[in-house]
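Incident review: delayed structure delivery

Summary: a single-chain prediction request sat in the queue longer than the usual turnaround. Root cause was a stuck worker, restarted by the on-call engineer. No data loss occurred. The affected request and its eventual output are reproduced below so the record is complete for anyone auditing the incident later.

Affected input:
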Amino acid sequence: MPIPTIGGGQQIGDGNTNEVNLYIQTVPIGAATSTATLTVAQLTSSVLVGNPTTSAASYTLPTVALLEASLGNAKVGSSFVTRFVNIGTSSGVVTLVVGTGWTLVGLAARPITSGATLVNVKTGDGTWTMYIV
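Output delivered after worker restart:
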């Protein structure tokens, strides 16, 4: 069901170009804590929340096999963006750890108080690359 245009905000392609652009955003699925293996649902929900309770946290990406089982229509070159938000109060870093089939490009360790944009690209059958921006 489309979002109504009454009350402000425009849908992409709906006209109303003088109003705020509205997008569909899923609600983040639980916060990852100190050491976690992320689920496909967490990674694909657009916003990934980290709430580490220790000074060094490691978040392992789900395997590409699990990701591709969920994204059956993904072709080489398909991509999605995950925004990482760290709400932890400990001092230290969050480190992203590859799951089978992943390549990380960019700085994987992030300060506790920062966020990052994660651009996920299918680079081949059974392979994805995450660009950490």
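Verification: The longest helix spans residues 64-70.
Action items: add queue-age alerting; document worker restart procedure.
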